[in-house]
Design goal:
Length: 267
C-alpha cells in the first residue's frame, strides 16, 4: 500500500517538475521578433544599395539597435518557454523596471509621431531621382528611423519588464535636463518657423534656380530639425544614441565616437 502512495506521489512530483500546464504564450513576442527580423532585412538591403558613407553609418546603427532588441526578446521568450523566471541585477541590486509601465503611452505616442514623419519624408524623397535634396532627405530619414528604433527598444523593454543595459547621457540633474529640454524646444520652434517661411518663399516659384536653392535650404533645415528632435527625445527618455565609426567594410566593431565633420560630407 505504501508503495502505491509513493508511486502516486512520484508521478505528481514529476508532473509538477516537468510542467503539466501549457507553455506561456509568446505570440506577442514572436510577432515583435518577426517584425524586427523583417526590418533588419530591409535595412541591410538599403545599406547594400547606398553609396553615402554617412547614411550607411546611420543604417549600421539602426541594424545594431534592432539586433540588440531581437536578442533581448529572444532571451525573454526562451525563459517563458522553459518556465524560467528571469531576474536582473545591477551591481548586486535587483533591477525592476515595472515602475516604468506608465511611460508606455508616452513612448507609443512619440513612436507614432515619428512613423508619420518618416512616411512623409519618404514621400518627399520619392519626388526626386537624385541630387543634393534627395541625399539630405535620405539622411533625415535614416536619422529619424534610428531615433524611432531606440525608442521602440525602450518600449518593448518596458512592456516585457526587461531593463536596458545601455549607455546613458552624462549624469545630469533634473533641473539641468529641464533647462536643456526647454532650450531644445526653443530651437525647434525657431527652426520650424524658418521652414514655414522658406516654404512660402518656395511656393512663389514654379521652378528655376531660385526655387531650387530654396528647396535645398528647406531640406537642410528639416535635417537640422530631425537631429534636434533626436537629441530632445533621447534626453527626455534617458537614452544616448551612439553612431559607429566609419568602417572598412566590417560592421562587427562598433566604436562610441561622435560623427566628425559636416553632416553633408559624403552625402
Amino acid at each position: 500500500m505504501m508503495q502505491k502512495y509513493c508511486l502516486a506521489f512520484a508521478i505528481v512530483l514529476v508532473c509538477l517538475l516537468t510542467g503539466c500546464t501549457q507553455p506561456i504564450s509568446t505570440e506577442a513576442i514572436d510577432k515583435d521578433i518577426a517584425d524586427i527580423k523583417s526590418s533588419i532585412t530591409l535595412l541591410q538591403t538599403q545599406y547594400d544599395n547606398n553609396s553615402s558613407e554617412n547614411i550607411r553609418r546611420l543604417i549600421e546603427s539602426n541594424i545594431w539597435i534592432l539586433k540588440n532588441t531581437e536578442s533581448m526578446l529572444e532571451q525573454k521568450k526562451k525563459g517563458l518557454n522553459r518556465f524560467i523566471t528571469i531576474t536582473y541585477s545591477i551591481d548586486g541590486h535587483l533591477c525592476d523596471p515595472t515602475h516604468l509601465a506608465s511611460n508606455v503611452a508616452s513612448l507609443e505616442e512619440c513612436i507614432s509621431s515619428l512613423d508619420a514623419d518618416i512616411e512623409k519624408a519618404v514621400t518627399e524623397s520619392n519626388q526626386y531621382s537624385g541630387g543634393a535634396i534627395k541625399a539630405i532627405i535620405e539622411y533625415r530619414i535614416a536619422s529619424m528611423t534610428l531615433t524611432r528604433n531606440v525608442l521602440h527598444q525602450k518600449l518593448l523593454s518596458v512592456k516585457n519588464n526587461i531593463p536596458l543595459y545601455l549607455p546613458t547621457p552624462t549624469q545630469m540633474s533634473e533641473d539641468s535636463i529641464n533647462t536643456s529640454l526647454a532650450g531644445l524646444d526653443e530651437d525647434l520652434k525657431r527652426i520650424r518657423e524658418e521652414i514655414a517661411f522658406a516654404q512660402k518663399e518656395s511656393d512663389q516659384y514654379t521652378g528655376g534656380v531660385i526655387k531650387g536653392l530654396i528647396e535645398v535650404r528647406i531640406a537642410t533645415m528639416k535635417l537640422s530639425e530631425s537631429l534636434l528632435l533626436q537629441k530632445r527625445v533621447c534626453l527626455a527618455n534617458g537614452l544616448l544614441v551612439y553612431l559607429p565609426a566609419a568602417s572598412s567594410g566590417s560592421t562587427e566593431t562598433e566604436k562610441r565616437i561622435p560623427m566628425k565633420g559636416s553632416i553633408l560630407d559624403n552625402l
